[in-house]
Each structure stands twice: as C-alpha cells, then as structure tokens.
Amino acid sequence: MPEQISSFLKKLLDLREGAEEKHAIIENIKDDADFSSARFWTLVFAIFIASVGLNINSIPVIIGAMLISPLMGPIVSIGLALSINDWGLMRRSFRNLLILTGISIVISTIYFALSPITNAQSELLARTSPTIFDVLIATFGGMAGFIGISRAKQSNIIPGVAIATAIMPPLCTVGYGIGTMQPKFIFGAFYLFLINCIFICLSALVVATYMKLPKRDYRDKAQNKRVNQIISVIIIIIVTPAIYLAYTFVAQNNFNQNAGRFITTTFEDRGFVVIHKNLKYEPAHPIIELAFLSDHFSAEQIHEFEARLVDFGLADAKLTIKQSGFALTEEEWQSVMIEVKNDDEKVQALETRLESERAGFQSPDRLLREAQTIVPPITNLAVGTINFGVTYTAGETQQTVAIVYAATTSPLTQIEANVVTTWLKTRLDKTDLITYFVPNPIEIIPTDSLPAR
C-alpha cells in the first residue's frame, strides 16, 4: 500500500508525464519566438482591439486582445534559452520582444492620440499600480503556460495564462499615457509589463530546468555563473519595489474600507447626502474630503465628526469638509444626480431630511428662542393658519392666512410689536402674516407732544 501511494505521488508530481519529446518542446518554443509577417499582423490587430477595449472600458474586448496577443512566445523562449544555455536563442528572442514591444507602444500611442475619448476609464487606471500580487500572477501563470506548451495534447492552459498575465493591455496603457501626455500611466503600466515579462520568463526557466531539457554544451562556466548573478539581480530589482507597492496597496485598501464605513455610519445613515467624496491615501496623513447637499456644519459638529475617526481605525486621517466657496463641476453634479435618482433610499432620506429641516426652521420653540433675543418679555409663541370661508378677493373661494400668537410678561410697546411682526414676516416668508399679542401692545405718546397745562 505505501508503495502504491508513493508511486501515485511520484507520477502525479512528475511534470514530464505526458509531455512532448524534449527536442520537440524546444523546437515548438523556438518557432513561437520567431518574427514573421503573420506574427506582425496578429500583433497589430491585437493592439487595436486592446486599445479600443481600454478606450471604451469593455472587459470582453480586452480579454479578446489578451487571447490573440503574440508576445508570450518571445518571453517564454527567453526563459527556455536561459535554462538550456542557448545564448543565440536568447538574443534572438530578446530582440524580437523589443521589436514587438516597440510596435505595440507606437501603434497604441497613435490610436489614443487620435481618439476623441481621452478620459481614463477604470480598466486603464487598473494597470497603473502593480503590486506583489501581479508578481505572483505572472509567476504562476508562467509556470502553467510552460507546462501547457510542453504537453503532447492540446489543452486550454495557454488561453487561460494569456488572460491571467495580460501582456497586451499594459503596453496599450503605456501608449495611452504617451498619447495623452500623462507620465503616471506610462511608468505604472510599463512597470506592470516588465513584471509580467520578467516573472513569466523566470517561471519558464524554473519549469524547463525541472523538466531537464537538454542543454547546449558550453564549457565556459564563468559565463553561466555571470548569467545566474544577473538573474538574481533582476529578481531583487523587480521584487523589492513590488513588495513595497503590495504593502501600500493593502494599507490603501484598508483605508478605503474604513473610510467608507465612517462615511456611511457618520453621515449617510443619518440622512446627510454626500455629493463629493475624495479619499487620498498617503502613508503618513491620509485625507478624507467630503461635501454635502444642503448642509452646513458648525465647528462643534465638525469636531465631533473628527473625534469619531478613531472608532474606524482612522486616527491619522484628516477630515476635510468643503462648505464655503465649494462648487462641483457640471460632470460631478450629473454624476451625483444620477446616483441619487437610482437610489430610492437616498431620495427618501433626502426628502425626509429636507422636510425635517424645514419644519425645524419654522418650529415655534426655535422661533421663541430667536424672538426672545429681540424682545425678552416674550414668553410664548404659537404658529398656525386660519382659513376664511368667504373672501373678498375676486375669483377666490377661500383664503388661508398665517397667524402668530405671542404672549408677553408685560405689554409691549407698539414699536416693539412692529419690530417683532416685521421680523416674523421675513423669518417665515409670509407677507400677509397676522400677529396677536397678549396683552395688547400699548402706544407710548412722546412727552413733548402732550398739551401744555
């Protein structure tokens, strides 16, 4: 029984099981590395498909470009050449890769320079910040790809690897960066392309070495040692910044999640409608920038919001609320209106909040507090409307008039009553407002106007 298990595991782990004859594997990979007219035109069509897909943000179109991309051949053949010490194949493969890469960048640059759509879509932005995860994808994808190439029977491994490693879209994103003069896209996307190339190549080297493909007979051991050193340096150069980017990616992802929970709990769940949200992640001082519809917060309220940042793991974050002098662009307003229209709960929350604010603004207790700052003797206020059954205005059958009842500790002067009435008309926006004061205001006659005795 143990021998059967051992035999099964040995057969399972042996990559040479079911593989092509070794010389056939080498020849097939060499053929894929060669430059030809068919490879050139296939590349041109793949470039246009990928560029259009990135331009219109269409994932299916981008996947189609991945599948027909001819760039995998030279990359895998470089790894094979390093494994079997075929320096001629390595030089030829590297030269062809440079030519195909240059063609891809030039054609995609021309396309994006002429394209009327210049704004960066999500698929373009997704290819500007490579991380350690892209290194892992390229590594495992390269291993799976080489295994697929080495099989005697056709399989679906190669299409899957082409989709996973995505060689063509990053190059077209470089073209977008050049065509629109945006260095962020140039360097970020080209770095992703280099990660894919290097680690697919290294994966092919590892698998080819494990499969013990026959090496070319070179007696110069110093040259072999020098090549191994170069490979080690390349790995360090590529992996080190990728690890840093992976760390920042995880930290930024955590910040975005925590900031989203903070905004939802602190503002949206309480009826505030966010019309502008900008999350800026910086390792030392991340920023949460917000603006709201029909809300103006006091300094005390903002301080309360800032105190809640700690509860969401955002102690180092800075909360910036745009209020005075802040205005959205037309495109931002359209985006906000579309979001609000498509969100029934947000519409209902907005209507409820506006109604609550309107009612609170005209509530008797609030009016009383404000009135007492004008005329302290006022002790109570009642606000309502009266409906007349008969009106003297032609063409109308009913008239509604707002009325305010005001109680005071002592009679107001007529001047004080007029001041309160004028203020209430402005405050309630009612020109036909009727006010009643209890007790009735008194008229104070100036002493100099009294008749002489």
Structure, explained:
By secondary structure, the chain is mostly helical. It has helices spanning 2-13, 22-33, 37-56, 59-68, 72-84, 87-114, 122-125, 132-150, 157-165, 168-179, 183-210, 221-266, 299-307, 330-341, 344-361, 364-374, 414-428; strands spanning 274-280, 287-292, 318-322, 378-388, 399-408, 434-438. It has a three-stranded mixed sheet with strand order 1-2-3. Strands 4-5-6 form a three-stranded mixed sheet, covered by helices on one side. Strand 1 and strand 2 form a beta hairpin. Helix 11 (183-210) packs across helix 12 (221-266). The radius of gyration is 37 Å and the shape is elongated. The mean pLDDT is 75.
Topology:
Blueprint: H1 2-13, H2 22-33, H3 37-56, H4 59-68, H5 72-84, H6 87-114, H7 122-125, H8 132-150, H9 157-165, H10 168-179, H11 183-210, H12 221-266, E1 274-280, E2 287-292, H13 299-307, E3 318-322, H14 330-341, H15 344-361, H16 364-374, E4 378-388, E5 399-408, H17 414-428, E6 434-438
Parallel strand pairs: 2-3, 5-6
Antiparallel strand pairs: 1-2, 4-5
For this entry, give a set of tags.
three-stranded mixed beta sheet; 453 residues; 6 strands; 10% strand; 17 helices; elongated; mainly alpha
